[in-house]
Design goal:
By secondary structure, the protein is an alpha+beta fold. It has helices spanning about 1-15, 25-40, 45-50, 60, 75-85, 140-155, 230-245, 280-290; strands at about 90-95, 110-115, 125, 130, 135, 160-165, 175-185, 185-195, 200-205, 210-215, 220, 250-255, 260-265. Strands 7, 8, 9, 10, 11, 12 and 13 form a seven-stranded mixed beta sheet that branches. A six-stranded antiparallel beta sheet has the order 1-6-2-3-4-5, with no helix packed on it.
Length: about 300
């Protein structure tokens, strides 16, 4: 139902602009092809959940076909970012056996997120017992029950309990997502999502010099133009370093915090190719052909 609603919104917006709604852009087709290649192969989960270590070399990371799939495991992504000296949230606990976790040792504010997942599913931004994401209170017992249900569905799944990074002004809140579409070190666009819940928010897009550019996605309403984060140059520097190592197109998410730019995650197939405006599709395709020619 949600996907049908999204398609309806997108179709309406395209119709208003006079764009054909039945055509899928070439960039979107490539993302769909990548998604199929990455995740429908027999070794998909084996590669994604390869156990990596902080001391592993880049050569060890790249020892599998489409090795970037390793970085869709959010714990591996943390390790990779740390290897390249990018800032990540502090890690309090990682694992599957929640009985090994002493909740009393956690700070009052912390984040729970799965190592495998997307679209903020099963992400909790906890302020004491209140989850800012769904505006609900949870006891320790209720959290464990929900997380254990998710663990039963996937033997590879783990949960990360991480630092709740604060905004540049020092607030504990749902942070803005700075989603950087980048091609082998060449930054195409920074899409800022002013998130209000896992599925809602406002969007505004900027180039590397923080000039406002056309909105990338039909999923969010447009936000007013906003000031760049204080850590913008650091964020872009981290993004380019990670992108060069990643080698192919990827979207890299960051947060602007009172500690500076903090890495969030890699997204190799944003929206599975859905939701890009026709103009965005053309722009991203041009970057792909120029800076990542011949790559998946």
């Amino acid at each position: 139902m949600l996907q049908l609603l999204k398609k309806g919104v997108r179709s309406t917006l395209y119709a208003i602009k006079g764009e054909p709604v039945h055509e899928i852009g070439e960039f979107a087709q490539r993302i769909k092809h990548r998604h199929s290649t990455f995740w429908k192969s027999a070794d998909a989960e084996l590669v994604r959940n390869t156990s990596m270590s902080r001391g592993d070399s880049l050569e060890q990371w790249c020892d599998a076909a489409h090795w970037q799939r390793k970085l869709s495991n959010k714990y591996n992504a943390r390790l990779f970012a740390e290897m390249l000296n990018c800032r990540v949230p502090d890690l309090y606990w990682k694992g599957r056996n929640l009985n090994d976790l002493d909740f009393t040792e956690l700070p009052k504010q912390y984040v729970i997120r799965p190592t495998i997942g997307h679209s903020c599913n099963m992400v909790f931004l906890m302020n004491n017992t209140f989850n800012l994401m769904d505006k609900s209170f949870y006891s320790e017992v209720e959290l464990k029950e929900l997380l254990n249900q998710a663990l039963l569905k996937n033997p590879h799944q783990e949960f990360l309990f991480e630092e709740f990074v604060r905004s540049e002004s020092g607030e504990y809140k749902i942070q803005n997502d700075y989603k950087i579409s980048i091609f082998n070190g060449e930054l195409a666009v920074i899409d800022v999502i002013n998130r209000t819940s896992p599925k809602t928010g406002l969007s505004s897009c900027y180039d590397e010099n923080w000039n406002r550019v056309d909105t990338m996605s039909a999923y969010y309403e447009e936000a007013p133009t906003q000031e760049p984060p204080e850590c913008l140059s650091e964020m872009i520097g981290f993004a380019k370093k990670l992108s060069k190592a990643y080698q192919i197109f990827v979207r890299i998410d960051f947060y602007a915090t009172d500690k500076g730019a903090v890495f969030g995650e890699f997204t190799p197939t944003p929206g599975k190719g859905e939701g890009f405006t026709p103009d965005a599709d053309k722009k991203l395709l041009q970057y792909w052909d120029k800076f990542c020619p011949g790559t998946i």
